[in-house]
Amino acid sequence: MRVGNIKDVAVIGAGDMGHGIAETALLGGLNVYLTDTTEENLQRGVANIEKSLVRMLSGGKISDETVAMAKKNLHPTLDFEEAVTKAQFVFEAVPEVLEIKQKLFQKLEELTSKETILATNTSSMLISQISQFLHHKERVVGLHFFNPVVVIPLVEVIKGKDTSSEVMQTAYDLCVKMHKTPVRVEKDSPSFIINRVNGPSRIYLGAVVDKGVAQPEEIDALIRYHGKPIGNFELCDHIGLDVIHDASEYRKGVLHPDYEPYEKLKEKVRLKEYGKKTGKGFYDWSNGRPTIDLSKRTDKVKIEDMDFIKFNEAVKLLEEGVSNVHDIDLAFRLTGDEKGPFEAVQNFELKEIVQRLEFLSDRYGKEILKPAKMLSEYYDDEQWLVGIGK
């Protein structure tokens, strides 16, 4: 199916990601059927869409005509079958539980046309696992949006083991139609680009906290002091510590045992302190966004260590054929970083990076921090970054 033939889409799940995807589709001129399991969830999603449209209108980002058209094209319904049978493209935005997604996609295959493209918004899971029990796996693709969906331009377009080239291209083109900047992920690899590259940094900082080397606010103060809009632990609170925990458990099984949730994270989840949505996590959110005291920044962590760790994991994506230097750096700039992982280390000597990674791996007992194999090939090459990027 070509993107020009897609007029009606369905979004399953009206939560933060679901209603954000629905609004983005509406702004792309599409007819949207939004569905959820309860009237309360559905109406909350609709209300959030309308609030967002009003904010964008008042900020001069969209016109009255755009708002009117979006409201006209939004069709909230509790009738799952009605929503998906009318659609040429379906977005899934349900909880990150593999069994839930697998059952949902089996149901979608039964109810939709063989031409209908089925997209999952999973942030971590293998596309081939989600489509495992389907007869037509070729029409399942990953479309990973980022929260807040309407604001962040990046969408990772992920090719499952069985996803057809035509489906990949149509999904890519649909993102463009929805005014997003898609980046292709050419191999079905858990966590894709952004979450995969950021994962080891979270492992490292979790180990720093567990060992008592520095506290979450001290680390976030350091990160914010160096110009980042948000620190690691505040971001985790924003995402949801339960979500971070579950994703870590999944990655532990499919990527590396080092993804085992760190002790402080486990403790927060046991206490049901999930972050912003519960009012407390690493920070107190009861009065809104926490204030980070930059004077508390730690001197026990080097800011470049996080750049080295991200770069190292990005190199592993090259080794595995998941993506390329240009797209990885672009993806990070689109999500708010000034520089991508390769750009961030271009002024360092490779020897310095490798030696530091070895030190951090040994100190914190994390094998995942060890230098990627490709780095040894260019260890003595002055043009190492050029060689790695070929």
Tell me the layout of helices and strands.
Elements: E1 8-12, H1 16-27, E2 31-35, H2 39-58, H3 64-73, E3 74-77, H4 80-85, E4 89-92, H5 98-111, E5 117-120, H6 127-130, E6 140-145, E7 154-158, H7 165-177, E8 181-185, H8 194-210, H9 216-225, H10 232-239, H11 241-254, H12 263-270, H13 303-320, H14 325-334, H15 341-344, H16 350-364, H17 373-377, H18 384-389
Helix pairs in contact: 1-2, 8-13, 13-16
Mean pLDDT: 95
Biggest sheet strand line-up:
3-2-1-4-5-6-7-8
Multimer state: single chain
H and E string: EHEHHEHEHEHEEHEHHHHHHHHHHH
- Structural class call reads alpha/beta
Overall spatial form: globular
Gyration radius, in Å: 21 Å
Number of strands: 8
Helicity range: 40-55%
Counted by DSSP, the helix tally is 18
The major sheet is characterized as: 8 strands, mixed
Catalogue the unreliable spans. none
Q: How far apart are the first and last residues' alpha carbons, in Å?
A: 34 Å
Proportion of beta-strand residues: 5-15%
